[in-house]
């Protein structure tokens, strides 16, 4: 009889915890869903696969939350899961067998002020920048995206990418240089 009461008590406790956990997952999706999908897209360059990876990120976070140790922020933890899932996907045999060609560029949100011509120029520049970032080698692309677009600190980047802060700084410096070289080369070839 005591076991039945204990089991019932455990079950009732788990049911009372689930709504809180569901609310927390909904908050994660609301706060980080779009950015995680954007990050996944930067890796896989396919919108539907990026959505799948993003969903898988939240499922894995939900399942593994009891093991979360509060050594980093939830945001850092979710990004780490997302990056690892993207890398796993890219290493999968499916990707090695299938050659992906072409991908839509990220859609930038036009500024609310300014003339249509100004918005078009800004959109064109944004698309060119995103296009150049996506052309970078993966280790440089992820640094640029996480540092500039997702506003991660060097320490957080090191944790997410499982590397030292000095390596992050070196890759960031190198990525900036490569991006600058690409943009100046692209600009000079258009002027000719």
TrEMBL record:
Residues 127-179 form the RNA polymerase sigma factor 70 region 4 type domain. It comes from the Bacteria. GO terms for biological process: DNA-templated transcription initiation; response to stress. It holds the Pfam family Sigma70_r4_2. The keyword Transit peptide does not apply. One of its GO terms (molecular function) is sigma factor activity. Keywords: DNA-binding, Sigma factor, Transcription, Transcription regulation. Residues 29-92 form the RNA polymerase sigma-70 region domain. Belongs to the sigma-70 factor family. ECF subfamily. This is RNA polymerase sigma factor. It comes from Halobacillus mangrovi.
